[in-house]
Specification:
The chain has about 60 residues and is mostly beta strands.
Length: about 60
């Protein structure tokens, strides 16, 4: 997602584009799969802060 005025990166989202089945890692193929409907929001990531730091691993306050 981009800020419409500055085009700065704000985050991202993933929306299913069609109905599909899913299984968790390690699930048996004998289990019934769950289903995700078309149009369901599956992931949303929002950037809350961004800064330039002077060293790798340095965190902002």
């Amino acid at each position: 997602m981009l800020d419409p005025k500055s085009y700065a990166y704000l985050g991202g989202r993933a929306i299913s584009i069609r109905r599909h089945a899913f299984r968790g890692a390690g699930d048996s193929l004998n289990l019934d799969a769950g289903y995700i409907k078309k149009g369901v929001l599956q992931d949303l990531t929002i950037r809350t802060a961004a800064a330039i730091v002077s060293a790798p691993g340095q965190r902002t306050t």
